[in-house]
Design goal:
By secondary structure, the protein is mainly α. It has helices at about 5-10, 15-25, 40-55, 65-85; strands at about 60, 65. The chain has one domain (about 5-95).
Protein backbone atom coordinates (compact mmCIF):
# COMPACT_ATOMS: atom_id res chain seq x y z
CA UNK A 1 0.00 0.00 0.00
CA UNK A 2 1.28 3.45 -0.86
CA UNK A 3 1.07 6.58 1.28
CA UNK A 4 -1.55 7.95 -1.12
CA UNK A 5 -3.72 4.85 -0.78
CA UNK A 6 -3.32 4.91 3.00
CA UNK A 7 -4.30 8.56 3.48
CA UNK A 8 -7.23 8.18 1.09
CA UNK A 9 -8.47 5.15 3.02
CA UNK A 10 -7.90 6.79 6.38
CA UNK A 11 -9.92 9.92 5.62
CA UNK A 12 -12.57 8.12 3.53
CA UNK A 13 -14.26 11.29 2.26
CA UNK A 14 -14.54 12.43 -1.37
CA UNK A 15 -11.57 14.70 -1.94
CA UNK A 16 -9.61 14.77 -5.18
CA UNK A 17 -6.49 12.65 -5.45
CA UNK A 18 -4.49 15.84 -5.95
CA UNK A 19 -5.64 17.13 -2.56
CA UNK A 20 -4.13 14.10 -0.87
CA UNK A 21 -0.95 14.28 -2.95
CA UNK A 22 -0.44 17.96 -2.10
CA UNK A 23 -0.94 17.31 1.63
CA UNK A 24 1.59 14.47 1.57
CA UNK A 25 4.15 16.30 -0.56
CA UNK A 26 3.85 19.49 1.52
CA UNK A 27 4.88 17.43 4.55
CA UNK A 28 7.74 15.74 2.67
CA UNK A 29 6.01 12.38 2.28
CA UNK A 30 6.36 10.71 -1.13
CA UNK A 31 2.84 9.78 -2.19
CA UNK A 32 3.80 6.65 -4.14
CA UNK A 33 6.25 5.31 -1.53
CA UNK A 34 5.39 2.33 0.63
CA UNK A 35 3.15 3.36 3.52
CA UNK A 36 4.77 3.77 6.89
CA UNK A 37 3.10 5.83 9.58
CA UNK A 38 5.25 8.67 10.85
CA UNK A 39 4.93 12.23 12.12
CA UNK A 40 4.88 13.71 8.61
CA UNK A 41 2.16 11.29 7.46
CA UNK A 42 -0.02 12.06 10.47
CA UNK A 43 0.40 15.80 9.95
CA UNK A 44 -0.53 15.37 6.28
CA UNK A 45 -3.64 13.50 7.45
CA UNK A 46 -4.51 16.40 9.77
CA UNK A 47 -3.97 18.81 6.86
CA UNK A 48 -6.46 16.86 4.71
CA UNK A 49 -8.98 17.05 7.54
CA UNK A 50 -8.56 20.84 7.61
CA UNK A 51 -9.06 20.94 3.83
CA UNK A 52 -12.18 18.81 4.14
CA UNK A 53 -13.86 20.83 6.89
CA UNK A 54 -13.08 24.17 5.27
CA UNK A 55 -14.62 23.11 1.96
CA UNK A 56 -18.16 24.50 1.83
CA UNK A 57 -21.11 22.09 1.73
CA UNK A 58 -19.68 18.79 0.59
CA UNK A 59 -22.55 16.63 -0.66
CA UNK A 60 -20.97 14.44 -3.27
CA UNK A 61 -21.47 10.77 -4.02
CA UNK A 62 -23.86 10.26 -1.13
CA UNK A 63 -21.55 11.91 1.41
CA UNK A 64 -22.43 14.93 3.46
CA UNK A 65 -20.71 16.45 6.46
CA UNK A 66 -22.77 17.88 9.29
CA UNK A 67 -21.54 20.51 11.70
CA UNK A 68 -21.11 17.91 14.46
CA UNK A 69 -19.00 15.76 12.14
CA UNK A 70 -16.89 18.78 11.28
CA UNK A 71 -16.32 19.45 14.98
CA UNK A 72 -15.28 15.83 15.51
CA UNK A 73 -12.90 15.94 12.55
CA UNK A 74 -11.43 19.25 13.75
CA UNK A 75 -10.89 17.70 17.16
CA UNK A 76 -8.96 14.81 15.58
CA UNK A 77 -6.80 17.22 13.57
CA UNK A 78 -6.19 19.41 16.61
CA UNK A 79 -5.03 16.40 18.65
CA UNK A 80 -2.56 15.46 15.92
CA UNK A 81 -1.18 19.01 15.73
CA UNK A 82 -0.91 19.16 19.53
CA UNK A 83 0.81 15.76 19.68
CA UNK A 84 3.62 17.06 17.47
CA UNK A 85 3.61 20.65 18.83
CA UNK A 86 2.58 22.08 15.46
CA UNK A 87 0.31 25.12 15.25
CA UNK A 88 -3.18 24.35 14.04
CA UNK A 89 -3.79 26.37 10.86
CA UNK A 90 -7.26 27.21 12.14
CA UNK A 91 -6.01 28.14 15.61
CA UNK A 92 -6.22 31.84 14.89
CA UNK A 93 -9.92 31.43 14.13
CA UNK A 94 -10.75 30.12 17.59
CA UNK A 95 -12.56 32.55 19.83
CA UNK A 96 -10.48 33.74 22.74
CA UNK A 97 -11.84 35.39 25.82
CA UNK A 98 -10.09 38.53 26.95
CA UNK A 99 -10.68 39.72 30.47
CA UNK A 100 -9.96 43.31 31.34
CA UNK A 101 -10.00 44.62 34.87
CA UNK A 102 -10.84 48.32 34.77
CA UNK A 103 -9.69 49.14 38.29
Amino acid sequence: MTNLEAITAKLNYPLSENTFIVALEDRGVVSDAVYATCEAFELAYADTIITLVTTPNITEGGYSISMSEKKTLLSIADKIYTKYSVANPLGSLKKKATFVQRF
